[in-house]
TrEMBL record:
Manganese recorded as keyword: no
Gene3D superfamilies reported in the protein's UniProt record: alpha/beta hydrolase, Prolyl oligopeptidase, N-terminal domain
Keywords: Hydrolase, Protease, Serine protease
Keyword Protease in record: yes
Segments of this protein annotated with the region Disordered: 1-23
Similarity field: Belongs to the peptidase S9A family.
Record-linked InterPro entries: AB_hydrolase_fold (IPR029058), Pept_S9A_N (IPR023302), Peptidase_S9_cat (IPR001375), Peptidase_S9A (IPR002470), Serine_Peptidase_S9A (IPR051543)
Organism: Deinococcus petrolearius
Identification of the protein by name: S9 family peptidase
Domain spans labelled Peptidase S9 prolyl oligopeptidase catalytic: 469-682
Every Peptidase S9A N-terminal domain range: 5-411
Amino acid sequence: MPTPPQAARKPVTHSLHGEDRPDDYHWLKTQGRTDPEVLGYLEGENAYLAGVMAPLRSTQAAIYAELLSHVQEDDDQPPVREGEWLYFTRTAAGQAHPLFLRRPAQGGEDEVLLDLNALKAREGHANVWVYAARPSPDGRLWAYLLDTTGQEVFELRVLDTRTGELAEPPLTGLSGWTLAWAGQDALIYGTDDATQRPFRIWRHRLGQPQAGDDLLFEENDPTFRAGADLAENGETVLIASEANMAQEWWALDARDPAARPTPVLARERGTEVPLLTDGGDHWLLLTNAGGASEFALKRLPKREGATLADAEAVLPYSPERYLTGFHLFRSHLLLAGREGGFTRLWVLPRTAGGYGEARPVVFPEASYTVRIGANREYDSATARILYTSLTRPAEHLDLDLETLETRLVKATPVPHYDPAQYVAEQVWATAPDGERVPVSLVRRRDTALPAPTLLYGYGSYGAPMDPGFSLSRLPLLDRGWVWAIAHIRGGSELGRRWYDAGRLSNKMNTFTDYVAAGEHLRAAGVAGDLVAMGRSAGGLLMGAVLNLRPELFRAAFVGVPFVDVLSTMLDDSIPLTTGEYDEWGNPGEAPAYADMRAYSPYDNLKAATYPHLFVSTGLNDPRVAYWEPAKYVARLRTLRQDGSGELVLKTNMGAGHGGSSGRYDALNETAEEYAFALAAVGGRL
């Protein structure tokens, strides 16, 4: 067995709020990701990982082959109409990246707009990502945001579809939050400040130098971030400046090349308006104003000085219905939300006087996930929606907004998969404070219980982990495993209250909910060996629960993990920090510091017997910097007691938060983790 690397210990003491916090590995942050000593340590960890995985590569190859066998390599995504064209992406066998195409809506030949594989080869990039792409109103131009490093700093390129060449030199240094057309010859985009906080919104006139672009909006409060989008009716660019618990809205006439933004709603801390659009003679919005904690749907008259006090309810508020989004059409409103822990859709007709009764869209399954898909036609009488469950691959459906009937546009093809062989269910765990926590399960029907169980969790930002199909689970399910998803507080599965009960001073609920889910699966005879998995804020979850109950798990996958919470949240020069005080708190204040100090994984590591751990990161990650997992692993190597499992750190040296951009690389990374999991449970590590 290879010898694991040992990072140099360079003692530093952080002192705040009367506490001295020793940190022997602070240098992994301060010396930077280009420093030879830092790179040497990360490369040493990668070499150690290679040694650990060497005897498992045949298993990894077999799992990769299984994963690939379930991928329809030659495939088109369902086209979405925009103007006179249908836009879609295509994957081809042997090609790692998609092609972006279009065809005339009235019939005709496919036209390739962008071949990412060719671009990657031609320009010599290790990875390529397209975050957004938008055609001009007449379809003559096609704009897209391109990232080639994983650092989430973008170029804006504009293709002239008549010539196949770029219409002008790329704009550089852009944010990935904003891309919209304002008329035929102007683009709206955003840029970041030094901490990668989106804070400026610009208007670019085609053919003009970037240096001469119009600055439309600038947000100087470091806890707010700015973005913009075109309203569904195509008449208004809506600019939002938002923090986690407040938003401010401005409107820009998209038809006037000289227009300046005008205020719609001012910000008010604690009063949220997360979604707003142009309804013609009114603004349509969601808000928690007036005690509507699960959000109300309201309309605000378009008159100067109007405030939320002037807004009228579009439908009666219900605390049992958590509203999360909508899409406006000329004749209907499609509304999204949650009831009873599951996603729901409603349709409201638009009438001369406003909006009619909300009618629910009904589906036959008891447990499913449905959401609003890509819709670009304001005058459409149908809406694209997406439907899935734990055993049912995603289906693209067209919903008739009048009859509420659905038509299957395309079911995601999954070769060599028979849904009848698998079964899904939901169980409930009891948290220490008595709260009931839902847990979704999927397994093969012939799996004998108890079985090895992978328990996935996230539990932050109000992001729900809804029960949906994933082909990447199949190699484990087909080997007799159970896949479980813990719907813990900090997400929003049971509404906004579920989110609020798992943030700030309530954050510990997230971790104890997850532990309770694992304990329940053991006690109920579902789980044998438990394997934990989480990424990003879910990586924080992993670190925290491993400190609480390391003996509960056989192994854990700690992906791009937010594990050095205090060091990150005390540094307002790095991405995300100031914008996330509403999520975690500001540790410059003593009460918030104490909350974070109680669960920060790096600061609560102790001498203990730990399970097998597979920790991963990306060198270019702008969201959770490489040094967080690197410091975590370095300290953990000094604290693991005899009997602890294997500990590895994988650093993707050419990617960021999401890992490799190519689909084959992504499959291979999944196969590597599963090979590690099988070996951990099988006693081969």
